[in-house]
Structure formats: C-alpha cells, structure tokens
Specification:
Bound molecules: adenosine-5'-diphosphate, magnesium ion
Keywords: ATP-binding, DNA damage, DNA repair, DNA-binding, Helicase, Hydrolase, Nucleotide-binding
Number of helices: 21
Protein name: ATP-dependent DNA helicase RecG
Structural class: alpha/beta
CATH class of one domain: Alpha Beta
GO molecular function: helicase activity
Strand content: 15-25%
CATH topology of one domain: Rossmann fold
Pfam family, one: DEAD
Organism: Hydrogenimonas cancrithermarum
CATH superfamily of one domain: P-loop containing nucleotide triphosphate hydrolases
Length: about 600
C-alpha cells in the first residue's frame, strides 16, 4: 500500500498515478560529465582556466586553457551581463558547457553555460514544479520496485526507469536515434494502457441485475431461414452470459450497417422471455422496421408492441418486447429487466438513463438493482479503441457482414458528370433508386458546389419521382417513407444517417465528398445495396486526387475505415466533426497498438 507521502508527492508533481508519472519522460538530458576529448560541432562540458580577457563593444572574449587540448580556446559571450565580467577573470577556473566550433585556426565556445556540479546526466522535465524538485520526486517514486508494485513486469519497469536515469550507453543511443528505442516505447505504451485500465476499472460500478434472465435463444435461432454469422453467434453468446448473471449487463455491440445487429437484438429479447424487454430506436421509421422484423422473426409466444408518437400497436402492458422511439420515455412503462437501445449514438446519456429509471421505478425494495442494458452502435471504432473503452463497458464487435455487399466506389468530378447522369437514368428506369447527398452549407459559405436548393430544379426538370428532404425538415420521416415506396431520386443533406432500409436503393452520389469524414461517408455508402443489389457509390469532388477519398474507395470494411480515419486525422488532414474519443494518449496509438492494449488489459484483469 503506498504511503501517504507517496500520494502527496505524486499530486504535488501534478500526476494522479505512478504510471502516469512514469510515462512522462524527460524532454531532454543535460549531460554535465566532463568530456575526455573534443570534437568539433559537438556539445561538451570542459574545465577551463581563463588566461586573458578582452572587452569589446557588445562582446566579451576570453582566452582559456583546457586540459583536453594544447590549443587555447576562445570563449565569446555576446551581450555580456555584469556577472560575466566577474566570472571571466584571468586565473579563474570554471566548468563550462557548450558546443565547440572552429573559428579560423582557433577553437571557439560561444555563450557557454557555467556548470556548478559535473559528472551527471540530468533529466530535464516539462513540469510545473522546479526542475530539481520534480526530479527528486521522480527519483524517489519511479523505481523498478514501485513500478512492479503497480503491475508492470520487471523488464518493462527497468526500461522505463532507465529513460529517467540514463547511463552513458543509453544516452548515446538516445542521441543517435533522436529518441527512446522501440523496446522502451513498447514499455511506455503498455504502462499507459495499464494505467488507463486500472483507473477506469476502479471507476466501473457494477450493479446487481433486477432479474436473472436465463432463457434460451434457440426457439428464435432455429426458425431463421439463414445461419447466423460467427460474429452474431459470438455476440449472442456474450449477451447470454451477461443476462444469466447476477450483475446488470452493460454492453455495447458495435457492428457495421448491415452486419445483422437486429438478429442479435431479437435473440436477446427471446432470452429475456418471459420477462420483458424494451427496445428504443431513434426514429419512428426505425422503430417500425424493428417492430415488423420482431413480429416476423420472433417465436409466436413472444408478444411485441410498438410505441411511437403517431402510432401504437400491440398491448404494451402485456407485451414481452416493447419497441419504440423516445416516445417511450413519456409512457407508463411496465417493469422490464432488459433495455436495449439501437443506434445508441443518436441518444443522449440522459435519455438512456431516463429509460433505465422508467423500467425499474416500481422496485423500491432493491433500489440498487438495475436492468440489463445493451447498446447497439453502427459506428465502427478501431479494435484498440474498443478495448480501451471496455474498461468501463463491455464491448462486442461484429466485424463481418452476412453477405458481402457488391458496391463499386468511384471518384468523379465535373468531367464525369454526364456519364453519371446516364448511370442514374439506367438505374431509375430499371426500377432502382438513387440518393444524392448534398453538403450542409451555411448561407455565407462558398464551397464550389451547388446546394440542394440550387439543384432541386435541375433534377426535377430531368427526372420524375424526385423527392427532397433537408436536415431541418419536420416531415423528413414522411418524405423518406414516400420515397421508399414510390420515389426514384432522393435529394438530401447528410441527415439521413440513420439506418432506414431502402431495399431498391442501388446508387448514392455524395456531393463535395472530400468535405466529409470517412465515418460519415461510410455510413452513407452503407445505405445502398442493403439486400444484395449491385451498388454504386459516386464521390463527387473537385479534388479527385484526394488521398483520403482514394483509400476510402478501396475498402468497404467499417473497422478498416475507422482505422484510416484515425490515420488521416493524425496526419493533420482537416476534418469537420468531432473526435470519437476526446481522450489523448501520450504514447498509445489507437490505430496500431492492439496487441499491447490487449496484453495490458489482461494484466489489469489479473489474468
Ligand atoms: P444492422 O442493423 O446491423 O445494420 P440488420 O440487422 O438490419 O443490420 O441486417 C441487415 C440485413 O441482413 C437484414 O435484411 C437481415 O435480415 C439480414 N441478415 C441478418 N443476419 C443475417 C445472416 N446471418 N444471414 C443472412 N442475412 C442476414
Ligand atoms: Mg440496425
């Protein structure tokens, strides 16, 4: 157990854990060891005896002798201060540090630093305390024994400690490589991940479940006309283990659009039977779709009800699965030990919490118990990030899709527009649908693309069945519904991110594609070809050479795209929109460090 002063010291230095302090390496090292030989152009610490001093305008020049060489060294101080006059007097000896240059036939040392104590390698930190105070704290706390006490293995601990207290060999390598070596970097990453898991793991609160749900998904699974994918089965198995436990589940299931999350939702509802489950979706169209699918696929004994603002179906009080929009939050919900939220990122934390309270309000006797909570997300995140987040919530990734979509992606500019129109004509005449997405534009902005308003007349003059919906459109759901039933071309802003199903949609055109984040592009492209139709995605841009768009065109895997997104963000490609995770790591790279993070998680879990 760390002593009190241990924690106080950490806090004083501005850190909340020892591992955090350990991964904040010195930003440089001051080497005050006396040089044993001189080489031009390198920094040295030398002993110098002043022989002669001359004051020139704006300059003090002293000639000095050093035991290291026969030739005298000329020391030049530009803009000398009064204390320089006191320092450089014939006969005085000093330890001086600076770079040795050649000046004509002489050796020169310009503006050297006087060193009071020699013989050390002194780490320099970026710190809020005084260097020496900070250094002393690090010296006393960052030790192999202490780091091992925090869960690091001896090898990694030693590598990190060495970077705080380097020896000659280490420093030489550091200088040669311009930084710490790969093994040390690995140790630092591991320590950073371990710190993250230890911290969040401590924060995670586990509640008892309001009910143990140990039904079987079998009656549902065996009625399906297709085999579930391995990833679907794995997700269902994870949920089965959750629901049959004593602890309230907190799990996020992340799967690309079309990865078959609905089947996982329905399997969970079946396992909850005869208890109730509530499923919340962000729009009434989605809620209705889920309701229809539930009725189609669930075994007959599972009663389903629908609750949206405009429509209700089934009997909510007796249903086993209640599907609805946020309208659910304003109803007198029966108690339900399982809550599921689809497209969870569309809801605020408050709404999710409210739902949780609503379905457990009648349980004053066990206030602490909570329902099982499953969230479904169609925003793929890099595996590594998923693992990092798993410190607070269990995460299951569904990385494969039941059928591989056949979508070809093309980057086109004005020169390809006529051909694009021809393609749209062919598709619509064959009874398929086309979606054209326009960027959201502020009135004052000039981005070089037509706005949706400016384009509407163009499309309507050339095609029938053109429907239009804007972001702020109140009738958005109605327009989408009408388009789904009988439309040919839908003009929209990016708002239609939610996974409504448009089975006849074969083509999407994204105007000004380079302005959008890869995650958004991926969501949009995922609209087409949802039922195995041959799909087309056209990225309309003035910047056809755009590297980000080109890599996007090459892959369809959402998890791969999440990785790419990260890579391009890091390389400074400007993107609109927010970072998925606000957290910044010093050493860890969410795109690359999967293995390290996995190992650190195992260590944190004591495995
Ligand atoms: P998501 O919600 O993850 O975007 P859905 O659950 O809507 O995806 O599934 C997309 C489509 O794939 C649906 O038509 C669904 O019936 C179908 N589907 C789901 N799982 C399978 C499977 N294992 N094999 C074949 N088709 C599947
Ligand atoms: Mg879905």
């Amino acid at each position: 157990m760390p002593s009190e002063s241990f924690d106080q010291k950490l806090k004083k230095a501005g850190f909340s854990s020892l591992l955090e302090m350990a991964i904040h390496l010195p930003i440089s090292y001051l080497d005050t060891r006396l040089s044993s030989e001189l080489s031009i152009g390198e920094a040295h610490t030398i002993e110098a005896e002043i022989v002669q001093v001359s004051r020139l305008p704006k300059r003090l020049v002293a000639t000095a002798r050093t035991p290291l060489c026969d030739r005298p060294i000329e020391i030049t101080i530009f803009h000398p201060k009064p204390y320089h006059g006191a320092l450089f007097k014939p006969g005085m000896r000093h330890f001086l540090q600076g770079k040795i240059d050649r000046y004509g036939s002489k050796l020169q040392l310009v503006n050297p630093k006087k060193i009071s104590k020699t013989g050390e390698i002194v780490p320099q930190y970026r710190c809020k305390l005084r260097q020496d105070v900070h250094r002393r704290i690090v010296e006393s706390l960052v030790t192999v024994a202490n780091l091992v006490g925090e869960g690091l293995d001896e090898e990694r601990a030693a590598l990190i400690v060495r970077a705080h207290r380097p020896d000659d060999t280490w420093l030489k390598l550091y200088r040669r490589h311009g930084g710490v070596g790969p093994k040390t970097v690995e140790a630092l990453k591991f320590a950073e991940a371990l710190d993250h898991f230890k911290r969040l793991g401590g924060k995670r609160v586990r509640f008892p479940a309001t009910a143990r749900l140990d039904g079987s998904a079998e009656p549902f699974v065996k009625r399906l006309p297709f085999e579930l994918t391995d990833d679907q089965k794995r997700a269902i198995e994870a949920i089965r283990a959750d629901l049959s436990g004593e602890t309230a589940a907190r799990r996020m299931i992340v799967g690309d659009v079309g990865s078959g999350k609905t089947m996982v939702i329905l399997a969970a509802a079946t396992m909850a039977y005869p208890h109730k489950a509530v499923l919340m979706a962000p729009t009434s169209i989605l809620a209705r779709q889920l309701y229809e699918e539930a009725k189609k696929w669930l075994p007959d004994f599972v009663d389903v009800a629908l609750v949206t603002q405009s429509r209700e179906a089934g009997e909510m009080q007796t249903a086993h699965l209640i599907v609805g929009t946020h309208a659910l939050l304003y109803r007198d919900l029966p108690e339900a030990p399982l809550i599921m939220v689809d497209e969870q990122h569309r809801f605020g934390t408050e709404q999710r919490k409210m739902l949780e309270r609503l379905v457990s309000k009648n349980r004053p006797s066990s206030k602490k118990a909570k329902p099982h909570f499953l969230q479904f997300s169609a925003t793929p995140i890099p595996r590594t990030q998923a693992m990092m987040e798993s410190a607070l919530i269990d995460v299951t990734l569904i990385e494969s899709t039941p059928f591989v979509k056949d979508i070809s992606t093309h980057i086109v500019d004005k020169s390809g527009f006529t051909a694009l129109l021809g393609h749209i004509r062919t598709e619509t005449e064959a009874g398929r649908q086309v979606l054209v997405v326009y960027p959201l534009v502020e009135e004052s902005e000039h981005i070089g693309y037509r706005s949706i308003e400016e384009s509407e007349a163009f499309w309507k003059a050339r095609f029938d069945g053109v429907h239009v919906t804007h972001g702020r459109d109140k009738n958005k759901d109605d327009v989408l519904q009408a388009f789904a039933e009988k439309g040919k071309i839908l003009l929209a802003t990016t708002v239609i991110e939610v996974g409504i199903s448009l089975p006849k949609l074969s083509t999407i055109v994204i105007v000004g594609a380079e302005r959008m984040g890869l995650a958004t592009l991926h969501q949009l492209r995922g609209r087409v070809s949802r039922t195995g139709l041959k799909g087309y995605c056209f990225l309309f841009t003035h910047d056809v050479k755009n590297e980000r768009l080109q890599s996007f065109a090459k892959t369809a895997n959402g998890f791969e795209i999440a990785r790419l997104d990260l890579k391009f963000r890091k390389s400074g490609d400007l993107l609109r929109g927010k970072m998925q995770s606000g957290k910044e790591f010093v050493w860890l790279d969410m795109g690359e460090d999967e293995k390290i993070v996995e190992a650190a998680k195992r260590r944190a879990d004591g495995r």
